[in-house]
Design brief:
InterPro entries: 4Fe4S_Fe-S-bd, 4Fe4S_Fe_S_CS, QueG, QueG_DUF1730. The structure is a single chain. The protein contains 15 helices and 10 strands. By secondary structure, it is an alpha+beta fold. It has a domain of 239 residues. The strands form 4 sheets. The chain has a 4-stranded antiparallel beta sheet, with helices on both faces. A two-stranded parallel sheet has the order 3-10. A two-stranded antiparallel ribbon has the order 5-6. The mean pLDDT is 93. The structure holds iron/sulfur cluster (2 copies). One iron/sulfur cluster binds next to helix 8 and helix 10.
Length: 353
């Protein structure tokens, strides 16, 4: 805990400076009031829009009360880090149906480790300045309402596409949080939203996953279907997925605020293994060993090999008929996984086989 003589205003400025030195583009400080967001989440869960993501429903009131999750917490430092790779042609890839589309956040190294390490470094800097204090770092963690916290910390507003949007930076950024037991001055929350009458994200969604503005039925979202869903992808949604084999960015690509998105400063978030320009058929030929080797340290690992093949089979089913596409599918007609076999059969049927 801090000493009474601590200059908290100066410390909060230093935390922001150190955060930027550590590669975060923006740092804000939030208090603990998140009540309205908890009610929104409860309604969303009650409607079943979270699908198989049971972890979203766990943790009860701890989600909206950071001080219940980490006793002693007084403030949450919310930080954002841009991840948009600079020279990627990914939007173009969406139109190239035989090429795999991998969500922009997943083209490089997994962000969890990198951001956690930077948050730890930030905590150490604070400790060097003021001595021991209580803290805990979170990155993409289920019990933390990170978007609500970011809004409270003044980092942006939650847009109709349910992502945090920033007028100067769009939405291609990761969020991290440092819970602290320091009574720092809080930043002005973002209270105005700037979506206005725009509905571009709602209109573009390939699977019509938005129930309405600010409400996403994750069960229809391609990010959920290709990453979180463990079982088969519902047949009626498969043709709508196109060549998106890991996540989807459509509701960000179309967002006018992303004209202001800046390329990432992190080399780690640049595409690896040519994932921004890989043929579906070529990826479908990877053995499990190859998959594990090539996805080491990558968010793609999260899907696992079987789901990766399942997704690629759907992409190949949606690709134009060609010899490489048909050969790749035929080679896995007898795949060891029942789920993969079923998706391969579906894909071949799309090509009249
Ligand atoms: S990520 Fe894609 S599928 Fe999911 S809501 Fe956005 S546009 Fe729709
Ligand atoms: S596309 Fe339009 S409505 Fe959707 S989040 Fe962006 S500004 Fe808001």
């Amino acid at each position: 805990m801090s000493s009474p003589s601590l200059d908290l205003v100066a410390l909060s400025q230093s935390i922001k400076d150190w955060g930027r030195e550590l590669g975060f583009q923006q740092v804000g400080i939030a208090g603990l009031e998140l009540g309205e967001h908890e009610a929104h989440l409860e309604r969303w869960l009650a409607a079943g829009y979270h699908g198989e993501m049971d972890y979203m429903g766990a943790h009860g009131s701890k989600r909206s009360h950071p001080d219940e999750l980490v006793p002693g917490t007084l403030r949450v430092v919310s930080l954002r880090m841009d991840y948009l790779p600079g020279d990627t042609l990914m939007a173009q890839r969406l139109g190239e149906k035989e090429t795999a589309y991998v969500s922009r956040y997943a083209l490089g190294r997994d962000y969890h480790k990198l951001i956690r390490k930077r948050l730890q470094q930030l905590a150490e800097r604070i400790q060097q300045a003021i001595g021991p204090f209580g803290y805990r770092a979170f990155v993409d963690s289920a019990p933390v309402l990170e978007k609500a916290i970011a809004e409270q910390a003044g980092l942006g507003w939650i847009g109709k596409n349910t992502l945090v949007l920033n007028r100067k930076a769009g939405s291609y950024f990761f969020l991290g949080e440092l819970f602290v037991d320091l009574p720092l001055p809080v930043d002005e929350p973002t209270t105005t939203e700037h979506c206005g009458r725009c509905t571009a994200c709602l209109d573009i969604c390939p699977t019509n996953a938005f129930v309405g503005p600010y409400v996403l039925d994750a069960r229809r979202c391609i990010s959920y279907l290709t990453i979180e869903l463990k079982g088969p992808i519902p047949t009626e949604l498969r043709p709508l997925i196109g060549n998106r084999v890991f996540g989807c960015d459509d509701c960000q690509i179309v967002c006018p605020w992303n004209r202001f998105a800046r390329p990432t400063e992190q080399g780690d978030f640049q595409p690896r293994h040519s994932l921004d320009n890989a043929q579906l058929a070529e990826l479908f030929r990877w053995s499990e060993e190859e998959f594990l080797r090539r996805t080491e340290g990558s968010p793609l690992r999260r899907a696992g090999y079987e789901r990766w093949l399942r997704n690629l089979a759907v992409g190949l089913g949606n690709a134009p008929s060609s010899i490489p596409v048909l050969q790749a599918l035929e080679a896995r007609r007898e795949d060891a996984s029942e789920m993969v076999r079923e998706h391969v059969q579906w894909a071949l049927a799309q090509h009249g086989r």
